[in-house]
Specification:
mainly alpha; about 210 residues
Length: about 210
């Protein structure tokens, strides 16, 4: 005798399941083509739900992009924490920098969604996306392994973050091969790490001398 219990169809989603499924599917699309590849209509078809269903979780495409980008930053933060926690002769900053470079080159579609779209700039202050970006930047500051003296750490963190971003974007566009400088991308990143640590140490020493401490 057949069971009277109805089975849940494979494409049925309840509560937050569809929201999570949409974010995961959108990330897969972004892997291939960045923000431009994400379409709510296409995602609904891919997941086997009605076209209005995604709008119960995201009011529009921008809201979906915000959630997807926040998840991308959380994934990057998790990767950076893992790299920083591993026992190594390299400094935390070196491990973070090389992990960032690897992420940017290996997952370039996601990286462009995070850093080469207007998603972060357009997100509301206090949103989950802004919280996720602050969490990532806090790891850059932590990786400097330096005391808090004014905003010297933050300034150097911004400098190396911008430098890393520049290497990834130039490489993605085929504009950086390392041939002109006779250096690999990884070697150039290590130069940034060394210069950042030296500059920060000198800035802290100068600030303490000026303060008479």
């Amino acid at each position: 005798m057949r069971s009277q219990l109805a089975r849940k169809p494979a494409n049925t989603y309840h509560h937050g399941d569809l929201r999570d499924a949409l974010i995961k599917a959108a990330l897969r699309e972004a892997e291939q083509g960045g923000a431009e590849a994400i379409s709510i209509k296409a995602l609904a078809k891919q997941l086997g739900v009605s076209q209005p269903a995604p709008y119960r979780h995201f009011v529009d495409r921008d809201a979906l992009l915000t959630a997807v980008t926040a998840e991308a930053f959380r994934q990057l933060s998790a990767l950076l924490r893992e790299a920083m926690a591993k026992p190594s002769r390299q400094s935390k900053l070196s491990r973070l920098a090389q992990a960032t470079l690897d992420f940017g080159l290996r997952r370039n579609g996601i990286y462009r969604l995070m850093f080469a779209s207007r998603t972060v700039a357009c997100a509301a202050k206090g949103s989950e996306l802004h919280e996720a970006t602050r969490e990532t930047f806090a790891l850059v500051i932590e990786a400097l392994e330096a005391p808090a003296v004014g905003y010297l750490r933050e300034r150097q963190a911004l400098k190396i973050w911008a430098a890393l971003h520049g290497v990834v974007m130039l490489a993605e566009q085929g504009l950086f091969t390392g041939e002109a400088a006779h250096a690999t991308r990884e070697e150039l990143v290590e130069d940034f790490v060394s210069e950042t640590k030296v500059a920060l140490a000198a800035a802290i020493k100068g600030a303490r001398r000026a303060a008479g401490t």
